[in-house]
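Changelog excerpt

This revision adds worked examples to the README so contributors can see how folded entries look when concatenated. The first example is reproduced verbatim below.
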Amino acid sequence: MEYKKILKNIQEKVRIINRPLRFMELCGTHSEAIAKHGIKNILPENIKLITGPGCPVCVTDQGEIDVVAGLALSGIPIACYGDATNIPGSLGSLENARQKGAQIFIVYDVAEALELSRKIPNLVFWGIGFETTTVMTAWGIQQGLTVFSSHKLFPPAMEALLENNKIRINGFINPGHVSAIIGMKAYEKFKIPQVVAGFSAEDVLLAIEMLLEQIITGEKKVENEYISLVKKTGNKKAQKIISEVFEIRNASWRGLGEIKNSGLKIRKKYQNIDAEFIHKELIAKIKKEIKPRKSACRCGEVLQGLIESKQCPLFGKVCTPDNPQGACMVSREGSCNINFRFTE
């Protein structure tokens, strides 16, 4: 369907509803598509799109970032994805650690980390991400890769957002890649309009139209706009691999605090390659020595949709993609990074 026709349909539905609405997108790729195509600028005034905690680098807990930096500074070689090297922490970023002599290796995927580990036996791969990247980390562990897991499950974060009375949300644009793994059923318990969407401008606009239709009809269900990739039951093979390697635990999220059953811990059967177990004494020492770094960064509030990036006093001034002061400015999926790149 042509996007102009979709936009016309949106305008007609908004006139019927005739009240302000807030829709939250839950994926950094959606946030980038919205900013890149100026979607906020072409929507009716009473529809507000707000960015949620869809960037895995952004939501990684500060304590975990400091532990990994501490391991690196203690002589443990670390492999990770590129955007993870610049997350600022109490001990500095991994890039700061590299400048001090630590061995930091940027890898494109888990297979590259696995190959590297065969040359560097004590290498630790820092696993970050939601269900989409978790499956590959699980595969790496099955192949013998040592991992420090910061992996998280996404649906519990949605539940935490809905339970926060400070956040008003009328509908979710659910993440496409995560949904390809977990399917649709995981979202059914949330009694709010939801649409799983693809990543083109047309996909996002169609998702908004579908949310509006649900509001008009009084429905609160999960719909699938991204039918080319997302299935109701998800990817069963990927789910099995994740379940085989990881067990669910509570986890802390930047901005959202501790969320019950939202983290993934490596199962005991793999503890000989679980960095959290192997280096537990060193990690305990690192945690005792960490002194929290004070910052005016308001990334945590941005991730909850409580404020926009431009409302942070650091945004675009001392905090830029070349000099990130907070996690939201580090990754290309981070809301501050996106808003900086696409703000006129």
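The second example, added in the same revision:
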Amino acid sequence: MNEIAPERIEVNGNAIAVRHRAGRAPGLVWLGGYRSDMSGTKAAALDEWAGEQGLTATRHDYSGHGESGGDFADGTISRWLEESLAVFRHFTQDRQILVGSSMGAWIALRMVQELRKAGEGDRVGGLLLLAPAPDFTTELIEPALNASQREALETQGYFEEASDYSPEPNIYTRAFLEDGRRNRVLEGIIDTHCPVHILQGMADPDVPYRHAMRLVEHLPADDVTLSLIRGGDHRLSRPQDIKLILRVAASLVEHAAKG
């Protein structure tokens, strides 16, 4: 599928690339994962489906990702959250479904908190969280650090780790980990005031499905669904995974339209 050239919005000196499909609300807002971009399989499938349904769809690359400007090593959850809020406010109107993948699910949850603080909580009509990784810096990365990684953080301010998804290594900076602690959400009830549907692969090597189960404990009991996918990995990009994602997205859009 040929992508049209993205629009750009400047946030804190970085040009953030955005692809916005006009349509009716409630629409979809895609929030990608760590080191992923808005042209991935799931994001493209959701955008195409939204077009078929006449819905608005918005996706962007965080700074240091994909077609956006900025240095990846400067990225933090706070920075990418601010960019996501700027895109949301600039490009969308009315109610939207936030679709967050992996780290994007963490950013989606933080967006809900920040929008509610600003009196804009009713702009979010639902959350679709795919292999959610909230608080992954404190819950998954830091507890697993070895001695050499801890030393690298202290002496050079970052450490590198081989990636299963790219020939380039993952880079985790001390600033990124410290900022992660300031953005933790798994400390109390996360009041979303909208339906939440979590899709989690049981064969996910990066985010254990028990992490998704723990997230459920921090969400209000009403309108929260956790679907465990036996054999599903972290990407959730198989044809059957995409069909399920689109089916859940359609259900959330229908619910938000009635509300």
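Reviewer comment on example two: The chain is about 35% helix and 25% strand. The chain has a mean pLDDT of 96.
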